[in-house]
Specification:
CATH architecture of one domain: 3-Layer(bba) Sandwich
Structural class: alpha/beta
Bound molecules: flavin-adenine dinucleotide
CATH superfamily of one domain: FAD/NAD(P)-binding domain
Strand content: 25-35%
Largest sheet: 9 strands, mixed
Radius of gyration: 21 Å
């Protein structure tokens, strides 16, 4: 079976669903293919920067309808438990991906987006059309393809993207807990080989999500063993995990998380969200970037849909330029920060500097974040 569409979006996470909603609101025909069935839990710190709020409102999403939790403070601890406290310059909110992605999915459906639960296995280009293979629904042809499939997918291999050939040492573990935790704070606790984010989402649930180097992790027999022997060396993490009650049957994990630079356009496919570039999670800004990259691309595509003023090459150049302008500096700052924060000597030094000159921390945070999106 061969289906035809104007724009085909691969992946319905934050970037893909935001794009689908944006394009559908402009009456542009769009099909989105997502391999998961919602609602579903996803590995994520679940803290979103407020910079996306004006754009979400423009799309008709009032975050207050979703019982989000306002977050205004950041606590960072060294692996021995020395603390840096700072106000978050813009602040943000906590909401589970279980709830947020499902909400966006339903909104896209209401707006008439053709949503399919299926897996894309390949993307090819012939003549002036893309051909997208799926597991259950056969082949789709389209004028444009948006790659919104996240950190890593079989499609990266098919497109021969550089990073897809490499192994990455990073894995992440996440679960929800009930526990006492200050709801206006997002905490980033360091431990040997990684760091753990804690923050509150809807219904007073605390999300704990950590990123760890596989070398550090593989010495232990399971997650519990790893947490007791490694995370518990940070007194804040010990206190949290000893007093928290796990709400999941089991933790969810992902591996092969790669932070290498990527390209925003690859063989004509417009990449958005993590598929275009993944910022280190300690910056707490990947979701805002996913949403913002969707806005940048959809503004260009919808402008062209009505005016037909650009060639495909011009659209590619315009998107690449705007994407670099919005994110290159942030991604670089994130890479530097990750190096600093994973080194214990630097952590101690950073903690001393931050306590002597507290104004420095919000300034550093600003380097990894953007300004509220203008709509
Ligand atoms: C440990 C960790 C903690 C993080 N914490 C935070 C945080 O606190 N705050 C923050 O802002 N960001 C955080 N991030 C980053 C954030 O999770 C991502 O930047 C964000 O989810 C990117 O959204 P996306 O839409 O690009 O990708 P995703 O949300 O991953 O969505 C991609 C979608 O594509 C689908 N898909 C993949 N392949 C296919 C296929 N072949 N066919 C069909 N569908 C497909 C997937 O099922 C998925 O639903 C964290 C990341 C990690 C790893």
């Amino acid at each position: 079976m061969n289906h035809s569409t104007h724009i085909l979006i691969i992946g319905g996470g934050l970037a893909g669903l935001t794009s689908a909603i944006h394009l559908a609101q402009q009456q542009i025909p769009v099909t989105l293919i997502e391999k998961n069935t919602y609602p579903v839990h996803k590995v994520c710190g679940e803290y979103i920067s407020n910079e996306v709020v004006p754009y979400l409102e423009y799309l008709g999403i009032d975050i207050h309808d979703l019982d989000v939790v306002g977050i205004s403070e950041l606590h960072i601890t060294t692996k021995k438990g020395k603390v840096i406290k700072s106000k978050l310059p813009l602040g943000g909110f906590g909401i589970s991906r279980y709830k947020l992605d499902h909400h966006l999915w339903n909104l896209a459906k209401e707006l008439g987006v053709r949503l399919l639960n299926d897996q894309v296995t390949n993307v090819g280009f012939q003549g002036d059309k893309f051909f997208v293979d799926t597991t259950k629904n056969g082949v789709f042809s389209s004028d444009y393809v948006i790659g919104a499939y996240g950190k890593r997918s079989i499609i990266d291999k098919n497109l021969e993207r550089d990073f897809s050939q490499k192994k990455s040492p990073w894995l992440a573990v996440k679960a929800h807990y009930t526990s006492k935790f200050d709801s206006k704070t997002v905490a980033l606790h360091n431990f040997e080989g990684g760091y753990c984010g804690l923050s509150v989402v809807e219904n007073d649930i605390v999300n704990a999500c950590y990123l760890v180097n596989y070398k550090s992790f593989k010495k232990y027999k399971d997650i519990k063993d790893f947490e007791s022997n490694v995370l518990y060396k940070n007194p804040y993490l010990k206190d949290f995990f000893e007093n928290a009650e796990l709400q999941f049957k089991k933790h969810i994990t992902i591996s092969q998380i790669n932070f290498d630079p990527k390209k925003p356009v690859e063989k004509g496919v417009f990449m958005i969200g993590d598929a275009a570039g993944l910022i280190h999670p300690l910056c707490g800004n990947g979701m805002a970037m996913a949403i913002q990259s969707a806005k940048i691309l959809c503004d260009v595509l919808s402008d062209n849909y009505f005016s037909k003023k650009y060639t495909t090459k011009e659209i590619e150049e315009l998107y690449t330029k705007q994407w670099n302008l919005a994110f290159s500096r942030r991604l670089y700052a994130g890479r530097v920060l990750q190096k600093v924060l994973l080194n214990h000597g630097f952590q101690v030094l950073a903690q001393k500097i931050a306590n002597t000159i507290p104004a420095i921390v919000p300034e550093i945070i600003k380097q990894t974040h953007g300004k509220p999106l203008v709509c």
